[in-house]
Design a protein that fits this description.
mainly beta, Immunoglobulin-like, 59% strand, disordered N terminus
């Protein structure tokens, strides 16, 4: 069996010529650990510059080949790259930076121009190993809004949450509920349409909540709980739970997304 041994001798142990070893089953180790941090999470409406720190650690017991990139998803369907696809063969790293147990650190910055929409942006470090396994790390920042503010449609506040913070389910499946709260802070009633879907591996788009039209009186809040049952037959991978609310009168739309992983 492929195993890695760590030498854990302490000063006292050396005096007595004794040592201990911790044995790790390499086949149970993840191949790569990905980390991402941003130097700031808040930008004004006129945009600005963000510096990101990428950390990619080789957690396997041997050298690995992988590709990585940095992408950004924003409001109104904005997607743009922050770092192009880079291929790495850890056996050929001159600094031996990614031999087993070592980390590659990369600093990458990007501009967010004024013309891009205000709202929440997700920065995603994605790493694909030679064996096809995918490893990710995400961070969020906002432009022109408060980091903790809720999305709204002209005074209609939308608050959709993973009710119990269930971010993953086992391979046998499981149920994940979500709470939906729409508060109408307008002077008049709000006419909206709402729906939820789960976008998963292999192009799956699973209905979570059918399209519903709601009329919410001024000052009222519409609330409901809706969930998705991850059947054991669903493929393993990442599922993006996407909720969308459309103002029927103006045609404006907002959305919220949450991620659940099926093992």
């Amino acid at each position: 069996m492929n195993k890695r041994h760590y030498y854990l001798a302490s000063c006292l142990a050396l005096l007595f010529s004794t040592a201990s070893y911790a044995e790790v089953d390499c086949e149970l180790q993840p191949v790569i650990e990905a980390n991402l941090s941003l130097n700031q999470n808040q930008l004004a409406s006129n945009g600005g510059y963000i510096s990101s720190q990428l950390g990619i650690r080789n957690e396997s017991c041997e050298t690995v080949k992988f590709k990585y990139w940095l992408s950004i998803k924003g409001p109104e369907g904005i997607y743009f790259p922050a770092k192009a696809v880079v291929g790495v063969d850890t056996a050929q790293q001159e600094s031996d930076a990614l031999t087993d147990g070592r980390m590659l650190n990369v600093t990458r910055g990007f501009w967010v121009p004024e013309y891009m929409a205000d709202g929440k942006y997700t920065v995603s470090l994605q790493v694909v190993a030679e064996n096809g396994k995918v490893f990710k790390a995400n961070q969020e920042f906002v432009k022109g809004v408060d980091l903790n503010s809720l999305p709204e449609l002209n005074g209609l506040t939308i608050d959709i949450k993973n009710q119990f913070g269930i971010n993953s389910v086992e391979s046998t499946g499981g149920f994940v509920p979500f709470t939906v709260d729409l508060n109408n802070g307008r002077e008049g009633e709000a006419n909206v349409e709402f729906w939820m879907t789960a976008v998963g591996p292999d192009g799956l788009i699973i209905p979570v909540n059918a399209r519903e039209k709601w009329v919410i009186a001024s000052g009222d809040t519409y609330s409901k709980v809706r969930g998705i049952n991850f059947d054991k037959s669903y493929p393993a991978g990442e599922y993006t739970i996407n909720a969308q609310v459309v103002d029927i009168v103006s045609g404006e739309r907002v959305e919220q997304s949450m991620t659940v992983v099926k093992k």
